[in-house]
Backbone:
C-alpha cells in the first residue's frame, strides 16, 4: 500500500510523491544493495524512485520494480542524463531505458544531471562551448514527443542558469533537483522556482552525514533534537518533514529497512517548528553545502565550472557568501 504522504503536481499535470528513495550510493554502482533497498522502499509504501545513468545501477532499480509486485503505473521513476552524454541526449536516454529493462517503457521524469557538459572520456568542456546546457535542453525537449518521457527537468541549476534557459527555450523544467536541507535552505532559488511553476526536489535532504567527516552537522543540533523529542520522532524525520511542509520533494537514501520506513513517516510540524528550522542555517558555520564535490578540484571549481559560472553564491568549499 502506498504511504499516505502529499504529492506535488508538476507543470505537466503529473503528480510526484513528496518523498522518494534516492539511489546514489556514494560511488557508482551498488548493484544488489540498491535492488534490495528499492524493494524495501516499495514495500514500505514509497512510490517515487530516483536514479541516474551516472549512478550505474539503473538495471537493479528496474529489477526491483519488476519483482516488487507494485504496478509500474503506481511508481514515479526518475533517471538522469550524464554530463558526458550532453551531445547525444536521445541515444543516452534509450540506453537508460534499456538498462531499466522489461516492463519499463517510459520514465516519469528525465533530468539533466548537471549543466556542465563533458567529453566522452569525462573531461569537462569549457563553459560556454558546445554542447551548452541550452542546446542539451532543446534535445531533451524533443523527448517529450516520444511517449517515453512524461516530464523533463534539471538538476543543480541556479536562478542565473534558469533565467537563460527559460529565455532561450520552450519548455519550462518540471523540477529542479538541488542539494537542500536546513543548512542550505536556498530560499531565493525556491521562491523563484515556485513563481515559474518549477518544483524543487531536495537531494541529500539529511545532509549526507557519512560524507561530512561522519558528522551529522544539523541532525544533532539541539533545536532539531528538541523538535524531534517533542514529536516522538527522529531528527531525520523532522528534517524531511520540514522539507515537505515547505513544498519541496525529498529523496533520502538509506539501506537500513527501519530507517527507510521512518523516512516516509512525516510529522506535522508547527509554525514555530518551521520557523526554528528555517533559521538553522543562521548559526555560525552552518550556512553551507555539506557535499564533497566542492573539494574535488584544488582551484575551487565544481566539475569544471566556477561558482560564478554556476550562479552559486558560494566561496571555495561550498560556504555561502554572507555579504
Residues:
Amino acid at each position: 500500500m502506498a504511504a499516505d504522504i502529499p504529492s506535488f503536481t508538476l507543470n505537466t499535470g503529473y503528480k510526484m510523491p513528496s518523498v522518494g528513495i534516492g539511489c546514489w550510493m556514494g560511488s557508482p554502482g551498488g548493484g544488489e544493495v540498491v535492488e534490495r533497498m528499492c524493494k524495501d522502499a516499495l514495500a514500505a509504501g514509497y512510490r517515487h524512485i530516483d536514479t541516474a545513468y551516472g549512478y550505474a545501477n539503473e538495471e537493479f532499480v528496474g529489477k526491483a520494480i519488476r519483482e516488487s509486485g507494485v504496478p509500474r503505473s503506481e511508481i514515479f521513476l526518475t533517471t538522469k542524463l550524464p554530463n558526458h552524454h550532453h551531445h547525444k541526449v536521445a541515444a543516452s536516454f534509450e540506453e537508460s531505458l534499456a538498462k531499466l529493462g522489461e516492463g519499463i517503457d517510459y520514465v516519469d521524469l528525465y533530468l539533466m544531471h548537471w549543466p556542465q557538459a563533458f567529453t566522452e572520456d569525462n573531461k569537462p568542456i569549457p563553459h560556454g562551448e558546445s554542447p551548452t546546457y541550452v542546446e542539451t535542453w532543446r534535445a531533451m525537449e524533443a523527448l517529450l514527443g516520444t511517449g517515453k518521457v512524461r516530464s523533463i527537468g534539471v538538476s543543480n541549476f541556479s536562478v542565473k542558469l534558469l533565467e537563460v534557459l527559460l529565455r532561450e527555450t520552450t519548455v519550462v523544467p518540471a523540477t529542479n533537483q538541488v542539494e537542500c536541507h536546513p543548512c542550505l535552505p536556498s530560499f531565493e532559488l525556491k521562491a523563484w522556482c515556485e513563481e515559474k511553476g518549477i518544483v524543487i526536489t531536495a537531494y541529500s535532504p539529511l545532509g549526507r552525514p557519512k560524507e561530512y567527516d561522519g558528522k551529522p552537522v544539523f541532525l544533532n543540533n539541539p533545536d532539531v533534537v528538541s523538535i524531534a523529542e517533542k514529536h516522538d520522532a527522529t531528527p531525520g524525520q523532522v528534517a524531511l518533514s520540514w522539507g515537505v511542509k515547505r513544498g519541496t520533494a525529498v529523496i533520502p537514501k538509506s539501506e537500513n529497512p527501519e530507517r527507510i520506513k521512518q523516512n516516509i513517516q512525516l510529522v506535522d510540524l508547527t509554525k514555530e517548528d518551521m520557523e526554528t528550522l528555517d533559521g538553522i542555517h543562521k548559526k555560525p558555520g552552518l550556512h553551507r553545502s555539506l557535499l564533497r564535490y566542492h573539494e574535488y578540484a584544488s582551484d575551487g571549481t565544481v566539475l569544471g565550472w566556477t561558482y560564478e559560472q554556476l550562479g552559486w553564491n558560494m566561496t571555495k568549499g561550498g560556504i555561502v557568501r554572507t555579504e
